[in-house]
Amino acid sequence: MARRPHRLRSAHFLRWLAVGVLLLIALLYYKPVRTYIERRHALAGRTAEVRSLQSERDRLRRRLTAVTSQQALTRQARRLGFIKPGERLFIVKGIPLWRKLDSTLDGRDGGGP
Prior knowledge:
Layout: H1 3-67, H2 70-79, H3 95-108
């Protein structure tokens, strides 16, 4: 009977030793695993940011292509009041009022030609 308590004590000791070893391993892996997870989240955020910036770059490239066409440059120059050499500039005032009056006249005579 003297051997039985000794076996129980050694089994009990081995269980606690196993728990201690597992805790030590968990403690040693905690920081690297935490760092890995943080880096993975940061990478996901950066990847989303890169995608957003790429789409913005593509949109700006399309806009640049549209703005640098000859027709777009001519249209923008006209809006700014530039004229081509040899052209005469005519400034017509009161166009909104004329359109308003013209639309009321179209409605009175049956509308249209």
